[in-house]
Amino acid sequence: MNPMDNSVTIFGDWGTSRLRLYLRQGKSVLDRRDGPGVGSLGGASPRETFLDLVGDWREARPSLALLCGMVGSRNGWAEAAYAPCPAGAADIRARLLHLDADGLPVAIVPGLSCRNALGGPDVMRGEETQILGALELDPALKQGRRLLALPGTHTKWVVVEDGTITSFLTAPVGELYALLREHSILAKAAPGDGPESPEGFARGVARVVEQGPARLPHLIFETRSRQLLDGLPKDEAMGFLSGLLIGGDVAATSSWFGDLGQVSLIGAPALSALYAQAIAACGGSSAAVDGDAAVLAGLTALSSDQNSGVHVLA
Question: How far apart, in Å, are the Cα atoms of 211 and each of 208, 219, 238, 243, 252?
Answer without folding.
Answer: 5, 9, 19, 13, 12
